[in-house]
Records
---
Amino acid sequence: MATKKTTKKKTKKTGTDSGSGSETFSFQTEVQKLLDLMVHSLYSHKEIFLRELISNASDALDRLRFESLTNSELLSEGTKLEIRLEADGKERLLTIHDNGIGMTRQEVIDNIGTIAKSGTQELAEKMRKSRSDEALGELIGQFGVGFYSSFMVADKVVVVTRRAGEPSATRWESSGQGQFTVEPSERETNGTSVILHLKAVDEEEGLEDFTDQAVLSRIVKRYSDFIAYPIVLKAGDEGKTLNSMKPIWERSASEVNDEEYSEFYKHITHDWRDPLETIVQKAEGLLEYKALLFIPSEAPVDLYFVGSESGLKLYVKRVLIMETCEELLPRYLRFVRGVVDSSDLPLNVSREILQQDRQIRQMRKGLLKKVLDALQSMRETDEAKYLKFWTAFGRALKEGVPEDFENKDKIVSLCLFESSADSEKLTSLSDYVSRMKDEQDAIYYIAGGPREMLESSPHLEAFRDRGLEVLFLTDAVDELLVQALPEFEGKTLRSAGKGTLELGSEEERKQKKRDLDEKTKGFDELLTRMQKILDDRVKEVRLSNRLTTSPACLVGGEHEFSPRLESWLREQRGDAPVLRRILELNADHEVVTRLKARFDVDESSELIPEYAELLYGYAVLAEGSPLRDPAAFARRFADLMARGFGP
């Protein structure tokens, strides 16, 4: 099995036998849940266990070749790297051997007893409830737990492994019932053997005779023909190679069908689903490389985690150099999976060299263009497929607008947004511009939480009255996007919740300003009093020209963060400043006019501070932000209700 870097978690030791060196451990809780589900599932594709074990063996061989580049003692000259299948129908045994990197005793305990990815428990619970092929395949794909699929076909699994460069071997054994044992063992060479004590044949349950040579040949041909190492089926004293071994990216596109591409994708990603899109690139000339890239059909659960790994597999002359080469694509395309094989890079290339290498920069530029062109073609020719892509990865792609100035226009052309024009269909900025009214000179948007909340925002009242379309920006990254995109096709992008609102023709705007200035004269003293009351939270109290039915709203300065972005930055960095906003009042609303009337009669009335606080709290809640002191707001609201009943 391949050794993979994981976060070490303590595995509970339930007993020891110091005389024999054998120790018994309990599986991590998430692993035991997974095993129970696999053993008792109705999963129909049980044959995939062999694909998963062969894939692990291939990874172990890759790892040995990789580590031998810096430690030549690990791989003797002339060693033939291979995967061997050994079947014993009489004893119901199937063994998968490899002479790869192997594992130490501690690596066995850490890697075959824990699942070190967050979200496992939630996905396992989903799988328990649905008990479907799709859910089980999703768990196998998301968390790289293909080894545990062995228990779908075996009553007992034994692993004997020896780490390259180490003198001793380790034996692991479990029947999948909650515990496993680990003890010293012997093995002549480095590598791993997985010995399956197979269950009885039951074809209705998907349990074929996995010792039958024809069955094994069919499964290998279907799922693992592209593996770069020989998969040898031992028959008596002879061995039969079951796979072609030619790397799939070395074959011309006309020689490979969609199913073969799909199986290779599953091999390198451990994703059970077919990829959404396959991208083949062959660069020739001054720089030569081949690339086989895939866009998954669903996003992995850790796609938006800060520390999530990303990158393509980098080969040099068919030798794996890096499992995750982040330098080959920008971070906003981290969802792309695949391999790149270069014939121009040195075999001992390091990550430090890659960061400075001119050829890597050229490859990155070519790969980036290929992916963006493929997405543009998908958007133009297959709307349904592109919408599926956008739902899964649009949020990541939008990160490229503020990050990649050179390709900003291409990325913007791929972006889709929710809009007040249609509750069911997304729109591009180009489509928005094509629908703009004659007198409209800006693309209007509102940023915040979910669409349902934004639709009811008081900031949109004037837009709704005029029939103006507004984009709903529901992702935090959207606000970074619009900051990096001040205009599109000559139209300014303008927030409905920031600055002073100016709608209509030039003459209409001038008239509205005159009317507002006139009204403000009568409200000056009340606005000044409210400003003093709310000064720690509000930098200005003014009358509004954007409200038609609500009494109040909060707006930001033209270039200030929105509350949602401010909160998001504080969570990410811990240092975002707390901004004072502008409180706008609707001079025509009954609450505001009656408050002014009370103020005109008695400027020192105790109700003025109470109503100022209530109007501010109303505006905070209306935009979907949390109240600083909800208990105080609730008390004031209750007092107001009590006064409403009279003496």
---
Amino acid sequence: MEQNRLFLFLALCFVSYMLYDAWVRDHAPKAPVVSTTSNSTIPDSGSSTMPSGTGEMPLPAPGKANGNTASAVVGSPASKQSGERISVHTDVYQIEIDTLGGDLRKVDLLKHPVSIVDKEQPFKLLDDSQARFFIAQTGWYLPQEPAMVPGTKTVYQIARKEYRLQEGDDALRVDLQWKNVDGMEFTKSYIFKRGSYEIDMEHTVNNNSAKNLQASLYMRLQRNAPAESSGFMMMPVSVGPVYYSPDQKYKKFTFSDIDTADAGGAGVKDVIKREITGGWAGMIEQFFVAAWMPSEKDSYRYFTSKMDDTSNHYLIGMMKAETVAANQQHKTSARLYAGPKVQKHLADVAPGLELSVDYGWLTFISKPLFWVMDKINTFVGNWGWSIILLTILIKLVFYKLSEASYRSMAKMKSVTPRMMALKERYGDDKQKMNQALMDMYKKEKINPVGGCLPILIQIPVFIALYYVLLESVELRQAPWVLWIHDLSIMDPYFVLPIIMGVTMVIQQRLNPTPLDPMQAKIMMVLPLIFTVMFAVFPAGLVLYWVVNNTLSIAQQWYITKHVLAEEKHTAGHHSHKKE
């Protein structure tokens, strides 16, 4: 039957897509992994030359040392040791700042545990360990006179080693200071705010000398490419550099793109090294993002680069030429967002930052789905019940379309004995049998492919919801009931996948039996295939499918019973008229 062939085709396409999506995420080309020397080492940045006086920013190179610029910006992973550590405690952060370079080396998110099992251990967004290297850096760059400005090798002076946001205080300021031989004073200030994942950054230069200072201010994120996906088949972790510009909007790259660009590959290099006014640059992963956000009025030269040919460290950041006149003070400010991708807050932080919640090509479906689910959750206070209510709403929206489809399937089932008779009559003559079937469909007003419309509707919604659960930190570690403590990961006891498989079997019993024995066997195996595949899906996604199947069964059973009753009544009426 055409309906069953189409159903099998759609099922195959769906399974193939999900497997392909998982394969691409798990096996996309990654940068080669090399061992780092110690937990306290940091590769310095890579840059070639500093253009003079034009306002054009230097672009990072793939780490080729060239003369005296190498000591300032280019180096091996072992070229920089750790200094003293400053501990900073707020209501949302536990942070370590290194006096060497003034880098943010560790950022623990206190309100986001590593897992539901280890709730006392906060998630480390930034970390300078060997396994997960991800830090935020900012400083000054002057290749002609590197000793005149504080850069990656500068040791800052500090007032104390521990800062804590006190009760009643709304902000906490941490100052790091350095003075060059000419008496120029540089202050790097981090300002942490209560309840916020935005960190204000201020650079203050007091030029107490008789000459002007011309140097470049840089802000960048540096991290290693993960050796492999830390997720499993259907739950891969997406990691990589991103940036936003008012003209090109949101752009995302892989670490392989950076390798290609640094090697001179066409089509990538030009779009990741450019001048931008009012944008931001960051690194994303599954539920979190870190991004530098300069002033919307300032123009910065954005860049992405690999540290050098042998390291596994990558950069994304920006640079801006600054001039500080003699005996003058100069201030530059920016912000760093380092935290969860909470969608209702990101858009208020910076334009386009909410796009770091990457729903892929089905964003136009995923975003409305999440919006509706979020509104429901404000009333019910549980994301599991929100998914259930969202599923009911989706079924109500498409009720009439589903009704027409199930009515067509019910009519198809009512004429199954006649189709079997046609098969016996025409035997192997498929052309005559198909013609007879089409004549019967026309006479009985049956759409042979009408039963597949619910599947066509469900597949894009299902995939869109898959991306919602994969990317929305709001559902991370969100419990439902009983054994489901995290809707964003798979059911630990596989209860929901098994229930889903049972609902698929029940649905098949309500559908007409395929005439082709091979199709019938494949249809019998499909519930088992889907059960195994769904076993590694997020529990929230399987919950959606279980509820959707259950509602479909109820709707289809009612319509089938109603249609069969109508058929019986019509047949009885015709029989009575003949008498």
